[in-house]
């Protein structure tokens, strides 16, 4: 049975969401390329390590999905998170093209937004 799309926020959910958003920021948008508006994070840097980087960055994605599951996020939303992580992993694994792709496809931020929407939280300003 599918759960409702917006869950009642709890203090525990708010705390976990804040942690997820903080980690997603570090992984996807922590730094900016000077003179541009292009943001990147540790995912882009660690993804430069052939064979290991993209696999290592799959672990935080799985953690975000586990947090979503813990808070009763609908399976459909968790599947979308899995899709985002899978696209990031598969395309990010392609030499050079994948590294460029990582600069623009922010899977962790997308998944944090999906979690925030599912938990009915407001976007922090």
TrEMBL record:
A Pfam family per the record: DUF4112
Family matches, as InterPro entries: DUF4112
PANTHER family: MEMBRANE PROTEINS, PH DOMAIN PROTEIN
Identification of the protein by name: DUF4112 domain-containing protein
Organism encoding this protein: Maritimibacter dapengensis
Taxonomic lineage from the root: Bacteria, Pseudomonadati, Pseudomonadota, Alphaproteobacteria, Rhodobacterales
